[in-house]
Amino acid sequence: MVFAWKSAGLTYNRYLAVAARAVRRSLKDGPRAVAERRGQMDLRFAKWENGKQGEVKNLAQVQATPGQAESK
């Protein structure tokens, strides 16, 4: 048995993202705003050197200013 999302060429994570977006868009205005805020992601990363964690940075901010992460 082949799953519909697999036969459509989607990964399971992508399938879940599409389904979640469809559910959020089907809500009324008040709950929709709350659900959309909950659906936003905030990715952070830290560079490890010599077994020690460096400064934790927000991925969106680093991408907005290219070369900043490279300068250190």
From TrEMBL:
UniProt cross-references to CDD domains, sorted A to Z: F1-ATPase_epsilon
Source domain of life: Eukaryota
A biological process from GO: proton motive force-driven mitochondrial ATP synthesis
Single GO cellular component term: proton-transporting ATP synthase complex
GO terms for MF: proton-transporting ATP synthase activity, rotational mechanism
InterPro entries: ATP_synth_F1_esu_mt, ATP_synth_F1_esu_sf_mt
PANTHER family to which the protein is assigned, alphabetical: ATP SYNTHASE EPSILON CHAIN, MITOCHONDRIAL (PTHR12448), ATP SYNTHASE SUBUNIT EPSILON, MITOCHONDRIAL (PTHR12448:SF0)
Family: Belongs to the eukaryotic ATPase epsilon family.
The protein's name: Mitochondrial ATP synthase epsilon chain domain-containing protein
Organism per entry: Aspergillus aculeatus (strain ATCC 16872 / CBS 172.66 / WB 5094)
Lineage: Eukaryota, Fungi, Dikarya, Ascomycota, Pezizomycotina
